[in-house]
Design brief:
Elements (H helix, E strand, L loop, with lengths): L3 H33 L4 H22 L4 H10 L3 H25 L1 H8 L3 H13 L1 H12 L3 H25 L3 H27 L10 H33 L1 H37 L3 H34 L10 H23 L3 H26 L2 H25 L7 H21 L3 H21 L1 H13 L11
Helix pairs in contact: 1-8, 1-11, 1-18, 2-6, 2-9, 2-10, 2-11, 3-7, 3-10, 4-6, 4-7, 4-9, 6-9, 7-8, 7-9, 8-9, 10-11, 10-14, 10-15, 11-12, 11-13, 11-18, 12-13, 12-16, 12-17, 13-15, 13-16, 14-15
């Protein structure tokens, strides 16, 4: 229990964390309109393709060693700084070895990634140093240093955006300008953080003594995270290869617009998950079920509002030349709603330390997504990728629900309610497409849904305060605790 001054401090800390996390991820969203107005579709599509490859490569080269830092707090206590420095060295070793292999066979890899030798070097230098920021963020969170972590995140995002914007305006090759500005500035930023982390952990036991523990934690997560990135990034890579950079630009800008929903979900989930774990730990399933219904209704209202605003959002993001891609937004957003709902069941898996099932589910969904992309994009064009993404998330929901059902824990949530709201969300896709042609009706619905959202917030204000307080006091999920 928390009360008095600590209660107020907890509430403020929770609000600060959620707001700063959302602001950092939203900065990319709000900078997109600037780039779409000074770069061609082909240039936007090319950079999007590069970014998609980077997101996949970072999972492989980093070995997701940052994941082990949370466990290390309990295993090694006062040696946390030495542990972080140790896993950072291991990351340098692995990623540098991979970089050497790529350099030795660079003609193959430049063709494979669809880029040139200079960009290839920048990509892998970024992969070598980028884990430093992730590691310091995890370390700060386990030590309750939210503000420092938030400042670092916001600084890195703003610096990369401003430098890339400046170079795009200056350089003739705008793709090179954005790559150098964005990834190059992050390389410098992460080198500085690497030096800082290595300095903090400069004394103590030999580095390699921590490696078996770190790898035992991180390696099982790689398949899950890599499959997740494939689910999110394979669309852009395959559209570029099958349809060209211009079509990838249309898809990418629409997807970026829709991804603000995913960013919002991630921010909300940092507050919801620890609170939900508390209810599971206390066996207060009635409260968990009741709150989850309101939580789902609130997010459902948010996606309805977002879908109604989609043409205006896309107009802001890219201008009229990107408006034809509005058809991408409804299936992608509804796919993210399925992601939102299945995350409730994933929390149960994590609470019972069944993370291996999460990896299996994500791998199956990614394989289905890639297969459907391969078959449908050449026939139906880039819009098909939005629907294959939706199918991938539906499959993930089905898998995770089945896993939790087999565990005998599905009753912790209102299954009938969840299925009903998911089916309603699917109906929103054709409705949204029709409303994009009926502006007056669309704005009338916007007003009605906005009022309904405010009512949901007011009715559930006490639960919302409780969730925010729990997030600020318990930043770690029970799945990250060591067994008693």
């Amino acid at each position: 229990m928390i009360s008095g001054d600590s209660d107020k401090k907890a509430l403020k800390s929770g609000i600060w964390y959620i707001a700063s996390n959302f602001a950092a991820k939203g900065a990319v969203f709000f900078s997109t309109p600037l780039f779409t107005r000074i770069m061609t579709k082909e240039e936007i599509g090319t950079f999007s393709n590069i970014s998609a490859w980077v997101s996949l490569l970072v999972v492989i080269t980093s070995l997701e060693l940052a994941t082990s830092i949370t466990f290390a707090k309990y295993e090694y206590g006062q040696e946390l700084n030495r542990f972080v420095a140790s896993v950072l060295k291991l990351n340098f070793l692995v990623s540098t070895c991979l970089y050497i292999v790529v350099l030795a066979f660079h003609p193959f890899f430049t063709k494979f990634f669809g880029t040139d030798f200079m960009v290839l070097n920048i990509i892998f230098l970024y992969c070598i140093f980028s884990p430093a920021l992730q590691m310091i963020q995890v370390k700060n969170r386990v030590l309750y240093q939210y503000k420092f972590s938030s400042v670092l995140t916001l600084s890195s995002v703003l610096i990369s955006i401003l430098v890339s914007l400046a170079l795009v305006l200056i350089m003739n090759d705008k793709v090179h300008g954005r790559v150098i500005g964005y990834f190059g500035s992050l390389i410098v930023f992460n080198i500085a953080l690497s030096v800082y982390l290595l300095y903090l952990g400069r004394t103590g036991r030999k580095s390699h003594e921590f490696w078996p523990f770190a790898l035992s934690i991180s390696l099982p997560m790689i398949i899950h995270l890599l499959s997740g990135q494939l689910l999110n990034s394979s669309d852009r890579i395959m559209i570029t290869k099958m349809c060209g950079s211009a079509d990838n630009a249309l898809y990418s800008i629409a997807y970026t617009a829709a991804a603000i929903i995913s960013t919002l979900w991630t921010s909300l989930n940092t507050a919801w998950s620890p609170w939900a774990y508390d209810q599971m730990d206390n066996e207060d399933y009635h409260r968990l079920k009741k709150a989850s219904r309101s939580y789902c209704l609130l997010f459902f209202a948010i996606i309805v509002l977002f879908l109604l605003f989609a043409p205006e959002i896309l107009l802001l993001m890219g201008g009229r030349q990107y408006l034809e891609a509005v058809a991408v937004i409804p299936p992608v957003v509804i796919g993210m709603f399925f992601q939102f709902v299945y995350s409730l069941y994933v929390n149960i898996e994590f609470f019972h330390k069944k993370q291996k099932y999460t990896a299996v589910g994500t791998t199956i969904a990614a394989a289905i997504n890639i297969g459907l992309n391969w078959a449908s994009i050449p026939i139906f064009g880039y819009v098909a990728a939005a629907y294959t993404t939706l199918v991938g998330y539906i499959v993930l929901f089905a898998i995770h629900y089945y896993i939790v059902y087999r565990m005998g824990k599905a009753w912790w949530y209102d299954t009938k309610f969840n299925y009903t709201i998911l089916l309603l969300s699917l109906v929103l896709i054709p409705i949204a497409e029709l409303l994009y042609e009926a502006t007056a009706a669309r704005w009338g619905l916007i007003a009605a849904v906005f009022c309904a959202t405010i009512v949901i917030l007011i009715i559930n204000r006490d639960i919302i305060k409780s969730i925010i307080k729990t997030r600020s006091l318990k930043p770690l999920m029970p799945m990250l605790k060591l067994d008693k």
